[in-house]
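User: Sequence recovery, please. Input:
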């Protein structure tokens, strides 16, 4: 007994000259001319001589794809409403079908749909994996950047199914990219030349003659209270002293960037609070303007970190 089939709307034209049948029994009544224009695979298939039976009724071609996958593909080939694909499994199946039938013109739309999944519940690691498998450079870069925001993204509890096909080089590229982002982000924090002499409102224009401290600079550099513990830094070839509470902030910021190499990491309460408490205990400049200076400094530092990290590109073979 033959399996029952159904016709998928809007691909139900009575004068169609080819029927594509999905693996799960859905028929798509189509026109060879449209399919041949969209796919060189179909064009080659239709160039073969017809049998006498095909002269009186449309040829039926059974494919291995599901009805849902074929509908996505065909809606992109035909002048009908385009599909909104918000399911990673469906999108991956559509990409595989587009690759199989060499409908390369469809990849741009499917790439945008995949990129849109980064704003949903889909994990950026799976999106990256799918994008890598189909050589979608922009989506790989966007998902790799999003992976920086949470180290747990790289430690899934369940192995993504794409890992069975993903080359080891794809994951190595992610590791290298993350390592380089950490390096450049931490280098921004350790740039004491910019802290002291950079172009900002607290730029040091002169040093005090006797103490050698910067004039009108950040509180942690200009405070002269003797009970402070100090750390030594080098800026502009000169050795300067910085309050211990600010040195604590620098260490905490470096640790935070190791886990999350993005500007927002160095403005979190866990990073900033110990420094603020240290500044508040000072009866001199730090106690008056330390909190304000630190707030201003972290805003500037956040921008500089994000700019530096944005210039790092993941190395891809496509």
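Assistant: Recovered sequence (318 residues):
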């Amino acid at each position: 007994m033959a399996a029952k089939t159904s016709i998928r709307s809007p691909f139900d034209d009575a004068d169609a000259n080819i029927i594509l049948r999905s693996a799960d029994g859905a028929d798509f009544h189509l026109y060879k001319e449209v399919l041949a224009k969209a796919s060189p695979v179909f064009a080659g298939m239709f160039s073969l001589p017809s049998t006498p039976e095909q002269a009186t009724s449309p040829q039926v071609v059974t494919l291995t794809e599901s009805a849902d996958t074929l509908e996505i593909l065909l809606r992109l080939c035909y002048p009908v409403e385009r599909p909104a694909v918000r399911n990673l499994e469906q999108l991956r199946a559509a990409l595989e079908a587009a690759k199989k039938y060499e409908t390369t013109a469809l990849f741009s739309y499917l790439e945008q749909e995949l990129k849109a999944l980064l704003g949903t519940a889909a994990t950026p690691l799976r999106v990256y994996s799918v994008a890598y498998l189909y050589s979608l450079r922009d989506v790989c870069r966007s998902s790799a950047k999003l992976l920086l925001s949470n180290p747990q993204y790289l430690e899934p509890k369940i192995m993504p199914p794409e890992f069975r096909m993903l080359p080891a080089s794809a994951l190595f590229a992610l590791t290298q990219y993350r390592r380089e982002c950490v390096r450049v982000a931490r280098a921004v924090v350790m740039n004491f030349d910019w802290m002291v002499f950079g172009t900002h409102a607290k730029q040091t224009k002169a040093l005090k003659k006797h103490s050698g401290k910067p004039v009108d600079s950040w509180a942690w550099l200009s405070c002269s209270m003797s009970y402070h513990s100090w750390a030594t830094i080098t800026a502009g070839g000169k050795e300067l002293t910085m309050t211990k509470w600010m040195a604590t902030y620098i260490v905490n910021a470096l640790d935070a960037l190791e886990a999350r190499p993005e500007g927002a990491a160095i403005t979190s309460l866990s990073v900033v609070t110990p420094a603020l408490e240290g500044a508040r205990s000072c009866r001199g400049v730090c106690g008056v303007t330390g909190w304000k200076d630190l707030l201003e400094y972290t805003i500037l530092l956040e921008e500089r970190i994000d700019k530096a990290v944005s210039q790092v590109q993941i190395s891809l073979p496509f």
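DSSP finds 13 helices and six strands in the chain.
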